[in-house]
Amino acid sequence: MKERKIKMRPEEVKDFVYEASKCDFDIDIFYNHYTIDAKSILGVMGLDFNSTLTVKYAGYNHDFENCVNRLAIAC
Fold this sequence. Notes:
The chain is 32% helix and 25% strand. The protein is an alpha+beta fold and 75 residues long.
């Protein structure tokens, strides 16, 4: 299972969800005590964009990795 910390602005949600939707594996976003399906635009839009989000997934897709790399924060 891969885990990445990201920060996202509202205008980046559409591209993130689009890339996640192309993947054939589950992708979850964790925020506080909530788990959101990363392929749900409504779910992702409901997040607090001022907070650090945790993305967990267990597969590989080149385009999705590039998207996550653009949003990743340094730990």
